[in-house]
Predict the 3D structure of the following.
Amino acid sequence: MKGLIIKDFYNLRKQIVLYLIIGVLYSVIGAASTDTGGTSFTGFIMILSAMMPITAVSYDERAKWDKYGLTMPVSRKDTVAAKYILGLIFTVSGAVVSLITGFIFGADMEEYLMVIAVIAGVCFLYLSVLLPIVYKMGTEKARFIMIAVILLPVVLIMAGASYFKKSTLSVIKVPESDVLNLQEKAAAVTPSGLTAGFLIFIAVSIVILYISYRISVSIYSRKEF
């Protein structure tokens, strides 16, 4: 399996350099704007990092590598596992780069760690959905589905926030006592409680990623090349 991962890194070397260059430029823009701490850079670089296994699968398809790889002493299970491990490696690497960026930009590191934890969990969920689809349909056929999976949550969040701001807040007048109660409840949430919540979220996303891996193995085991 180690050889499979090294092979993917070798294939992705140009993409890695390109993403690093884009990431550096993006972080400079974030530092020069009101985006203190480079939080937008965090999401950008980590999502890009998590998508690298999809790119690796695409390269394998173009080179017809799967047919050749099955002639080697490598099981189909190991072939699939290598892509998931690659996703973990790139996501963790993106998180480390984001931490360094946040430190350089003077971000609140405790808050920044929570942001990174949430984005890492989201990256795992993206991989959990996308990799089985790619193994089932191939990268070319699944291209529009992948775009929808990535963009749909963002569109829904933006649309929901816009609707809530324009309609609900403009119509409903919240009593001052209720506002104070909400503020008191928010203040009562301890950092340890928030940390526990984020850790649970990451743990759940990893469990879902493992389930996704089992599904991908089942799909890949039945494919003919």
